[in-house]
Amino acid sequence: MNLGNLFNNYGEAVAMILFGIGFSNLLLQKNLIKKIIGLNIMDTAMYLFLALKGFIGGRKAPIVTDGVQSVEAYINPIPSGLVLTGIVVSVSVTALMLSLTIRLYRRYHTLDLDEISTRLRKEGL
């Protein structure tokens, strides 16, 4: 097995490990808050991966200064824009999920998803 590629791409490996941790947390936990935390870990892993893919060593942000207009002098701004947009969307989705979790807790007095499902079935909804 060639470990040279793993050491050269350790950031991508960390992003994949974080994604796996978040995904397994999302699937295996019964508590809604823990599920939200798992989803946020997955989001963070994706942002890390996109940021690593968009980084090119030795290049600058795409702001033309000193009259340098060569494409080879700058990084691609699209991954950075995707990360910023994703963070904004992620914060909004997290706020919505937390507000719905609060409403569920006030109604059912539990954050256990199985117990909430059982009570919903008993109510006939």
How would you sum up this structure, described in words?
This protein starts with a helix and ends with a helix. The radius of gyration is 21 Å and the shape is elongated. Helix content is 71%, strand content 0%. It has helices spanning 4-8, 10-28, 32-54, 78-108, 113-123. The chain has one domain (4-123): Helix Hairpins. With 125 residues, the protein is mainly α. 5% of the residues are buried. It is built from 5 helices and no strands. This is Cation:proton antiporter. It comes from Hominisplanchenecus murintestinalis.
Distance N to C terminus: 54 Å
Structural class: mainly alpha
The overall pLDDT, averaged over residues, is 90
What is the fold named in CATH at topology level? Helix Hairpins
* Estimated radius of gyration: 21 Å
CATH class: Mainly Alpha
Topology pattern, helix = H, strand = E: HHHHH
Q: What fraction of the residues are assigned to beta strands by DSSP?
A: under 5%
How many DSSP E strands? 0
